[in-house]
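Much of our argument rests on the idea that a fold can be written as discrete symbols. Part of our work consisted of pairing the sequence of a single chain with a tokenised description of its backbone. The amino acid sequence and the backbone structure tokens for this protein are reproduced below.
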Amino acid sequence: MPDKLDKARILLVDDVPANIKVAGNILRHEDYKVVFATSGREALERLGESRFDLVLLDIMMPEVDGFEVCRQLKLDETTRDIPVIFLTAKLDTESILKAYNIGGQDFVTKPFNESELLARIRAHLDLKRSHERLRTLNCELELEVGTRKKVEKKLRQAQAKVRKTNSELEKRVKQRTSELEKEIEDRKKAQEAQRQSYEKLNSIMDDIILTMARLVEIRDPYTAGHQQRVADLAVAIATKMNLSKDEIDGIRAAGIVHDIGKMYVPGELLTRPGKLEEFEFKVLQAHAAKGSYILRSIDFPWPVADMVGQHHERLDGSGYPEGLAGDEILQGARILAVADVVEAISSHRPYRAALGIDVALAEIRKNAGKHFEVAVVSVCCELFENNEFSFDRMS
């Protein structure tokens, strides 16, 4: 279980004293520092007076309701990054879409389920901490890059001076050459330190990506390992298509977190064994856009947010969320789309048993050129038919 932020401050807003008492006892038992507000107006005053790491916000309140509190919170630059979890007795499509449109992150239904409430709070606090940690690392890296540029500038200046003084006495030339050799050695040391810093940053970024992927699996245990298997197959396809190492690294990262947006989908929709209603399926579809939103705040060296947001787009424009078509869809997203469908069909789901790899390959062949890129489908089928790839070997 991820560690929660030390002494995280939570603002609990509800106009019903019984709800405040129940939720407050749960949070204090976990050592969270809790501040209460019994109205939307009081909540806005609290937000202006102090810093909070997360807000638990009731929707239905007199005068200023939860939606208006969230809207004002997200408009303020000092509070816009605070995660908001809405508290509601009943979920409906209109409320869900309205909440997401004004910047809300999640929902918890009343009466509270203690385990679900704490799990959602921990997930959003951990994600907030990951974003803050990555921003700090980016600042440190920028500082180190600036130092390297200063060293390189100094070296160029020294080299220009050597060229200008070639006509001087041999003793002076030898002396300057000695100085130059020392500067070159310093540059090598600086470059080695820079290389180690890049390797450290890449390692930390990999850890953060895997942590984000595990957060989704906590919400959706039936698809545990799905993101990693999709990433493995997508990398195998991209490798066989001779994409560059940089492109493959970006596809791997996007594959591992391509369903991160499911954090915003109510847990009961993710694990329901039966078929979803139309409005419920629309809520589920929002995970692609939400995943792109989460990842866009992270400065990846690849277009990870765009690939995640496009992995349900289709060549003929019939996909979602934007209805992109053809070359409007990134190459990495077209590869992820095929890998995602093959893994999903061949694996077990709450609403059906696993259909097997043969059915999965038949499905992508049937839609090659319509939903999926022909070249990607062809390479994917070759990998399985030539026994070059297997989900069993990757697990």
Remarks:
- The first strand starts at residue 9 and ends at 13.
- The domain at 9-112 is CATH 3.40.50.2300 (Rossmann fold).
- The mean pLDDT is 84.
- Residues 114-164 form the longest helix (51 residues).
